[in-house]
Amino acid sequence: MGFLKTEEISKSFGEKKIIENISIHLDEGELVSLLGVSGSGKTTLFNCISGLYKPDSGRVLLNGEDMTGKPGKISYMLQKDLLLPYYTVLDNVALPLVIKGMKKKQAREKAQPLFAEFGLNGTENHYPAELSGGMRQRAALLRTYLTSDGVALLDEPFSALDTITKSAIHEWYLDIMQKIRLSTLFITHDIDEAILISDRIYILSGAPGVISDEITIDEKKPRTNDFTLTPEFIAFKKRIIESLRLHN
Questions:
Q1: Residue 127 burial by Cβ neighbours in a 10 Å radius (0-12, 13-18, 19+)
Q2: 3-state secondary structure string, the chain?
Q3: Tens digit of pLDDT for each residue in 56-110?
């Protein structure tokens, strides 16, 4: 089961084992969060899934195809947007396509029609410094989508945004995921964020990191901020906190 899945992924650096026997799955159209304290191996797992690291053991499968240690198929967006300041927004978004061998003109033509869909219409010829933090993240997300195969790994992409901007971009991202049929695996340290946007949450705990819990959030999305005041939200939060305390 699973559009994207890992099978018993383990990874060490020297004598130190970082993650051990990690098996998770992401179904088509889902947003699944990976939640854990710093040092539990979340980013190492993402590096293995994206193909940047080859795990010591285990496999990464995308639509049944073994993608273990093969970068370029599963897009990975880091916490910082990494937009180049001397490139226009359009050229920033199109850059990964050019790196893959596409002509610059063709890459621009592929990227430009999606600017309206991503709420970026009119920014094509601007430079990153002219955009707000939320708009920069939208540009980075569009760049990630263009190089994805229907699945994206996001490593704390909204952590630098203020609360109001973060809430708005959550709602926007969930909407855009449905429109463009994108599945997302999402790293966060923010328990509230994970509960508000996720279909499921994996808790990564310990040293080496292991999956200690899997929580299904079966509330309809998008979830309003009022949801954070409900008994259901509080129950989810208590379970997550208890799981993190128990296994760390």
A1: middle
A2: CCCEEEEEEEEEECCEEEEEEECCEECCCCEEEEECCCCCCHHHHHHHHHCCCCCCEEEEEECCEECCCCCCCCEEECCCCCCCCCCCHHHHHHHHHHHCCCCHHHHHHHHHHHCCCCCCCCCCCCCHHHCCHHHHHHHHHHHHHHCCCCEEEEECCCCCCCHHHHHHHHHHHHHHHHHHCCEEEEEECCHHHHHHHCCEEEEEECCCEEEEEEEECCCCCCCCHHHHHCHHHHHHHHHHHHHHHHHC
A3: 999 999 988 899 988 877 877 766 777 889 999 999 999 888 888 889 999 999 9
